[in-house]
Design brief:
Oligomer: single chain
Number of domains: 2
Structural class: alpha+beta
Number of helices: 6
Order of helices and strands: EEEHHHHHH
Mean pLDDT: 79
Largest sheet: 3 strands, antiparallel
Strand order of the largest sheet: 1-2-3
Strand content: 5-15%
Number of strands: 3
């Protein structure tokens, strides 16, 4: 099976990249390249004496899809193209909004706000009368939001660093 679809593979020297910081690390050459849309970290191994990059090696691990997307973005930046969309692993807007709500509720509780006050400010358009609070539907919702906030503050925020991969699950098998 042929590895390329066109002409012979192009080799890129890290020193040729504009805005790249390049240094030697043992027998390898490392570079940080600030392209227009992202910063790419490159390690060029010297196999035959040349330090050009003409292939990308990706380990087949749980982060493979993320690495493939990073390699695709690097290739597109090399060729002066936009990064494309959607970016693999970008948090959906609904998830971002939920995390913001969780952290705002956590901050409110740390500031000694009552559950009713948190629900009133963050979840309701109308004031909640104290006598209605005991049976109010937002009472359970604010507790659920605060449980999620507690998990996030207790270390769950690290999952955001590895999104869409979860540290708690090994696989989706």
């Amino acid at each position: 099976m042929p590895a390329s679809t066109g002409s012979s593979p192009r080799s890129v020297l890290p020193s040729e990249l504009r805005n790249a910081g390049v240094w030697e690390q043992g027998e390898d050459l490392e570079a940080l390249w600030s392209a227009s849309t992202a910063t790419h970290r490159l390690i060029a191994e010297s196999c035959d004496g040349s330090l050009g990059i003409n292939a990308i090696i990706l380990p087949l691990d749980e982060a493979f899809e993320t690495r493939v997307d990073a390699a695709r973005q690097f290739w597109r930046a090399l060729n002066g193209r936009s990064p494309g969309s959607p970016v693999y692993g970008a948090l959906p807007q609904q998830t971002k909004t939920r995390h913001i709500l969780n952290l705002r509720a956590h901050d409110a509780r740390r500031a000694a706000a009552s559950y009713r006050m948190i629900a009133e400010v963050l979840l309701s358009r109308d004031p909640i009368v104290p006598r209605d609070w005991r049976d109010h539907h937002l009472r359970h919702k604010v507790r659920a939001v605060l449980r999620r906030a507690d998990r996030m503050v207790a270390g769950g925020y690290r999952d955001l660093l590895f999104y869409p991969h979860s540290r708690s699950r090994k696989s989706d098998r």
